[in-house]
Amino acid sequence: MIDRNNNGQFELEEIVGPAMAHPGVCGMPASFFQSHDRNHDGHMTPAEYYAEVRRPDIVYSDRMQLILGGKTIELVFPGKNHADDGTVIRAVSPSMVPRNEARFRRAFLPGPD
């Protein structure tokens, strides 16, 4: 999402407009906007957008190793090539090569996918 008019908040047109004007362009449905515009004033502030985001308990800046179920993975920050918060998961244990996020979640994270 992009604050296209630079007013510090999102409006419905900024969320659904690009996808409606150009099919295939990333966008969110109107229902996403309506569910996150918590006070229903037609504007979604950063506080409303991030209201359900939990701050991390552990952070890293360059790389960090984790041992999960006896298998070692490494979290690597690849730099700001796509986003400020990107992470690459590198399999350190030879028997472990996660092919995608869904397999990684099933292998290491509790609860439903």
Question: Could you give a quick summary of the protein structure above?
Answer:
With 113 residues, the chain is of the alpha+beta class. Helices cover 26% and strands 18% of the residues.
Shape: elongated
Oligomer: single chain
Strand line-up in the sheet with most strands: 3-4-5
Beta-strand percent range: 15-25%
Q: What class, by secondary structure content?
A: alpha+beta
Q: Which regions have little confidence, pLDDT < 50, spanning 5+ residues?
A: none
Distance between the termini: 25 Å
How does the major sheet shape up?
A: 3 strands, antiparallel
- Mean pLDDT equals 80
> What is the tally of beta strands?
5
* Tally of separate domains: 2
What sequence of helices (H) and strands (E) makes up the elements? EHHEHEEEH
Total helix count?
4
Q: Gyration radius, to the nearest Å? A: 18 Å
How helical, in percent, are the residues?
A: 25-40%
Question: What does this protein look like?
Answer:
The protein is of the alpha+beta class and 113 residues long. It folds into two domains: 10-49, no CATH class; 63-108, no CATH class. Helices cover 26% and strands 18% of the residues. It contains four helices and five strands. It has helices at 12-21, 30-36, 46-49, 101-108; strands at 10-11, 43-44, 63-68, 71-76, 88-91. The chain has a three-stranded antiparallel sheet, with no helix packed on it. The longest helix has 10 residues, at 12-21. The two termini are 25 Å apart.
